[in-house]
User: Which sequence fits this backbone?
């Protein structure tokens, strides 16, 4: 049975009727590539000699759709050069014209084929994607492997081959690897298998500087791990609200990769002084890690099956006039300090102001987090968690938090206590802080951006 091709079609039956109509429409026939020209884009008749492992669909409807989609793309290959290529199955194909509208000014190419599997994508990667010399590739694939009783291990092996092929083509080309979205056991895609698949995808992406692993599963999954009907009416394909959430998750990553340009507001309000000039890391640096902190971290990590990577700094380092730290963890993009996604998945590191703050003060800033991201703001050296709160906690009951959008954090420090709010909601009413110390930004997992970082001294 074909997958739903467009998000506004409300049932699988409607999608089937649409597919049949297209196949017999005189207009569609007139626009189609001749059979002789499209034959080279057909699915091979046998698995012999094909790359990859696992299922490859060969149902009649799928073979026709696969061939026609690929032949049509061949005709637009020149005009699609240098695009950000979205690669996947019906979820990608179903974005349709909404894909370009979601990212104004960004040249995109949709290379989704309804019903495709990881092996099918691997087979067509060179012709459909790499031949476009893409600026970046956004990959979402694997749900149909599970429906076809393929193993998570085989699907992950195919994704690893895709990553390696992209790296061989251009080692600097960014790849955004999206977690497979939640679905349902009723769709032959149980939550346990999807979680296992995503865990294997993480291992395929780990320690690859050009790959951003985007945690798209937790932002969609309901309490039982299945898709929410409010965003996935058929428990498989997102509706308009679902696509909007996916776009919001991608937008911060695109900004950091330099694929889109966003406004860069940073001028402080009256009474405030900016801790960040909007263009470089002047006023910020690394501080020597205290011996007690190193020992405490070692004790915590000893109890963990897979402890995070931790970066300790032996010396004070200033980043005056510098727009990126040497290893690229902290960088300035579009008027924000970005705590970039670590290739290791979790890497704990801190950036500090060069001066301390013994006086009472108000700190106000804006932050934006990718799904399930974990960061923090240090207040005189004590950490206040800054995260994708609704998914990662700890403040997961906030009513005004805007996932993957800019949020306002305001902290009023008086003596040894701080009142902390997010978009006006109290998250900590009496947060204990030392008598003096710097302000800092921590990185852990995912990407978090900070902008409009202002401080006002209180009388």
Assistant:
């Amino acid at each position: 049975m074909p997958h739903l091709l467009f998000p506004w079609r409300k049932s699988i039956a409607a999608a089937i009727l649409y597919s049949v109509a297209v196949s017999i429409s005189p207009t569609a026939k007139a626009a189609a590539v001749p059979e002789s020209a499209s034959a080279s884009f057909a699915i091979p008749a046998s698995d012999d000699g094909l790359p990859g492992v696992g299922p490859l669909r060969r149902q009649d409807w799928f073979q026709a759709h696969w061939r026609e989609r690929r032949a049509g793309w061949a005709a637009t290959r020149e005009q699609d050069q240098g695009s950000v290529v979205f690669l996947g199955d019906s979820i990608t194909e179903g974005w349709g014209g909404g894909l370009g509208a979601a990212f104004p000014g960004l040249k995109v190419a949709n290379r989704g084929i309804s019903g495709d599997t990881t092996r099918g994508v691997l087979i067509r990667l060179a012709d459909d994607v790499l031949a476009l010399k893409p600026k970046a590739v956004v990959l979402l694939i694997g749900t149909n492997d599970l429906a076809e009783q393929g193993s998570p291990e085989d699907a992950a092996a195919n994704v690893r081959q895709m990553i390696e092929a992209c790296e061989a083509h251009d080692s600097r080309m960014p790849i955004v690897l999206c977690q497979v979205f939640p679905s349902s056991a009723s769709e032959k895609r149980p939550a346990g298998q999807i979680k296992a698949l995503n865990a294997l995808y993480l291992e395929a992406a780990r320690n690859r500087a050009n790959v951003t692993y985007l945690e798209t599963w937790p932002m969609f999954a309901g309490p039982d791990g299945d898709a929410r009907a409010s965003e996935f009416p058929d428990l498989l394909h997102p509706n308009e609200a679902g696509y909007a959430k996916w776009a919001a998750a991608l937008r911060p990553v695109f900004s950091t990769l330099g694929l889109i340009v966003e406004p860069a507001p940073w001028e402080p309000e009256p009474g405030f002084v900016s801790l960040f000039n909007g263009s470089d890391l002047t006023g910020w640096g690394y501080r020597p890690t205290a011996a007690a902190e190193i020992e405490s971290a070692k004790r915590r990590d000893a109890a963990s099956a897979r402890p995070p990577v931790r970066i300790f700094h032996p010396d004070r380092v200033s980043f005056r006039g510098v727009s990126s730290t040497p290893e690229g963890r902290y960088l300035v993009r579009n008027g924000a300090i970005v705590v970039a996604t670590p290739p290791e998945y979790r890497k704990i590191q801190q950036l500090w102001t060069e001066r301390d703050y013994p006086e009472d003060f108000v700190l106000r800033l804006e932050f934006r987090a990718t799904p399930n991201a974990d960061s923090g703001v240090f207040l005189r050296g004590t950490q206040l968690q800054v995260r994708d709160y609704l998914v990662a906690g700890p403040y997961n009951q906030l009513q005004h938090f805007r996932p993957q959008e800019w949020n306002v954090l305001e902290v009023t420090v008086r003596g040894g206590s701080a009142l902390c709010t997010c978009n006006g909601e109290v998250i900590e009413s009496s947060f204990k802080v030392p008598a003096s110390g710097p302000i800092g930004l921590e990185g852990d997992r995912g990407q978090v951006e900070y902008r409009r970082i202002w401080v006002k001294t209180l009388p």
